[in-house]
Specification:
- The chain is mostly helical.
- The protein has one domain.
- It is built from seven helices and two strands, in the order H-H-H-E-H-E-H-H-H.
- The protein has a two-stranded antiparallel sheet with strand order 1-2.
- The chain starts with a helix and ends with a helix.
- The model has no long low-confidence stretch (mean pLDDT 86).
- This is Nucleotidyl transferase AbiEii/AbiGii toxin family protein.
- InterPro entries: AbiEii (IPR014942).
């Protein structure tokens, strides 16, 4: 759904946001942020990363479960440590450290690895999807201009 909205012309997006703001009473800028939150979640969870992601926190309570009625600008995600650092977890199916010392070690290691993992695994997925979205937006504008010129 977010992809469809984001490929609309700028004028059509403004009009859709104005209608949504009128119907919901929410400010346009929050509705637009919400579209980007949904697009980001769709992008992440439809990729191979989604297999090991868990969506949690207030946004999940609002978006996924409808438990609360509020807009949340942040997205809380957890990635399964067994996929991120299988060498740390070993045969521990529960993926929970056995001791406080092991917990500190895992935390330290994951904090070191996380930026590298995000740069190598998450950013390419997001960049590719953003590029594809941009191409669809450009193609959509080209089609609209061509059809306008034929009239």
């Amino acid at each position: 759904m977010a992809d469809l909205f984001l490929t609309l012309s700028k004028d059509n997006r403004r009009e859709a946001l104005a209608v949504a703001a009128d119907r919901t009473g929410r400010p346009i800028h929050l509705l637009e942020k919400d579209v980007w939150v949904v697009w980001t979640l769709q992008t992440l969870f439809s990729s191979k990363l989604g297999e090991h992601l868990v969506f949690k926190g207030g946004t999940s309570l609002s978006k996924a479960y409808g438990v609360i009625k509020r807009f949340s600008e942040d997205v809380d995600l957890t990635y399964d440590i067994r996929a991120l650092a299988p060498d740390l977890v070993g045969d521990n199916d529960e993926a929970l450290p056995k001791t406080r010392s092991e917990e500190k070690h895992w935390t330290s290691e994951v904090r070191k690895r996380l930026p590298v993992w995000v740069a190598g695994s998450v950013e390419p997925v997001m960049a590719r999807c953003a590029f594809n979205l941009f191409r669809r937006q450009s193609a959509s504008r080209t089609i609209r201009s061509t059809s306008t010129m034929k009239r």
